[in-house]
Amino acid sequence: MVPQAAAPLPDTSLFHRRSADGRRRVLVVDDEPVSRRLVSAVLGVQGFEVLEASDGAEAHALIQRLATERLSLDCLILDLFMPVLDGVGLLDRLIMEGLVVPVLAMSASGDRDTILRLMRLGCDEFLDKPFTPDQLSTRVCDFLARTDRATALRRGREERLKIEKTRLENDSERYARDARDANDSVTRLSAQIETARTVYQDLIGTPAGIDGLDLIWRNQPLAAMGGDFFGCRGNQVLVADVAGHDLGASLLGVMVKAFFEENCRGDLTGVDFLRRLNQQLCDSAQTHRLVTAVLLNFDLKRLSFEAVCAGHPPPIVLRATGADPVPVPGCGSVLGMGPEVVLSAVRCPLAPGDRILLCTDGVLDVSRITPAGRQRFGPGGLRAAALQANAGDLTSMVEGAWQAVLAHCRHKPVDDMLLAGIEVRRPETSDYEPQPLDDDASAIQRRV
Length: 448
Fold this sequence. Notes:
Elements: E1 25-29, H1 33-45, E2 49-53, H2 56-69, E3 75-79, H3 87-96, E4 103-107, H4 112-120, E5 123-128, H5 133-204, E6 213-220, E7 228-233, E8 236-242, H6 247-263, H7 270-283, E9 291-299, E10 304-310, E11 316-318, E12 326-327, E13 345-349, E14 355-359, H8 361-364, E15 367-370, E16 373-376, H9 378-389, H10 394-408, E17 417-424, E18 445-447
Parallel strand pairs: 1-2, 1-3, 3-4, 4-5
Antiparallel strand pairs: 6-17, 7-8, 8-9, 9-10, 10-13, 11-12, 11-14, 13-18, 14-17, 15-16
Helix pairs in contact: 1-5, 2-3, 9-10
């Protein structure tokens, strides 16, 4: 039985080196000379090398010498009741010093409590006195055979544990190395993404202004970069939404910007421009990318604008008179689906102080869970939010509507979001007279 001790105990490998002739070595400890010599004689006939000690102190010194010289000690045959240092005291000392020895105790008066105490101290076998030579020989041989099997099993387990430890250490080193490599890769990738984001922001740039109009916008990409684009050139305003949230969507957004800046300088109508953009998308390598867009062409001399929608949420007009917000009607084909697109232009009159609200579908598609189910923000929510915030200046209106969108989805959008507000400036002179419109000031006329 393995002794119970506070500190780890060495195994019998401390007593590894056998005698010169290879015999097994035993130590007989007994204060009675006759009994000690009888045991020694019986075991000597069986081929054992027998050492003797007359008490526990002498046996302790002998065991320490064997351990120091790393000589084998296969069995300690120990009498319990001896002067100077008895058997129990010897076992106590061996445990305190971490010396593990297979022990066979012998006594003529071993009661149950003594046997239990011996077992707790590491005693593996108990032999009652008196005993015959055959009994002694059989018990010692059987005891050593069990000890050998236990030692072999223990060493086998230790060898397997050593192999497993080595494997785990190698795995741990490999995992640590992989973790360091992954961390380095993530660090490099993060730096590259940050660089790409900075370059993307530089390429997209800040929308240029339009004389006579005030522009305010908010945007929030779902990832580091997005596919939403808001641009102004000349008298034209373009809002585009590229499908996807990856680097490809951002690069295509840059392409849309470059195409817009190149083509808005001509005299193209909004319909012609979006048809050319659709052809460009179909001819490019990004044929799997779809784009929605809305193009506004302002004529501030006539106080009107023309809107062309390509599968995009229509603009919302908020009149300075306080009338209900009016969505501009009409919706065309999504760009990039094929060479043929259906587009139409809608002309809408303006008055000083009128405002136009533009957004991408990420703003309208935000939702939240209510007891009645999933509630989408939608065009109605945007019109209500804009109308509620319309009493202040343009910045307050756009910011109020933007915060309403974020609050609706609890700041957890599912798509890129862009919200832009445009306001027709009031003339600085006091002699301004509004131009009469054909029908009603809020009328919207369609031109195909």
